C-alpha cells in the first residue's frame, strides 16, 4: 500500500533508492577491490624485491665465508706473527737498554760515592788544618801576649825608677 502510494506519488521505488544510493554514494565495494589489487601488487613486487635482497645477502655471505674470511684469517695470522716477532725484538732491545741504564746508574752512584768520600776527606783535612792554624795563631797570640806583658813589666820597672825621683 505504501509502495503504491509512493509509486503513484511519483517517488521512485525503495529498492530503486537503495540501488541508486549504492551506485552513487556507497563506494566501499570499489574501494575494497582497489585496496585488494594494490595490496596484491605491493606484496608481489615487495616479495620479489625481498627475494632479490635475500639472494644478494646469501651470495655475499657465501662469498665472505668462502673467500674473504680465509684471506682475512691468513693475513691476520701472518701479520700477528710478524707483529709478535717485532714485539719480541723490541722487548729485547728495551731489556738491554734497561740493563745499560742500570749499569750507568750504578757507575754514577759509585762515582758520586767516591766524590762524597773525597769531599769528606778534604773536609776533614781542611778542619785539621784549621785546628793547626788556630793552634799556631793561639800560640803566637800567647807568645805575643807574654812579650807584651814582659815589655810592659819592663816599662813599669823603668817607670818605677823614674817615679822615685
Automatic annotation (TrEMBL):
It holds the Pfam family Muted. Keywords: Coiled coil. The keyword ATP-binding does not apply. GO terms for cellular component: BLOC-1 complex; transport vesicle. InterPro entries: Bloc1s5 (IPR017243). Residues 80-158 form a coiled coil. Belongs to the BLOC1S5 family. This is Biogenesis of lysosome-related organelles complex 1 subunit 5. It comes from Chordeiles acutipennis.
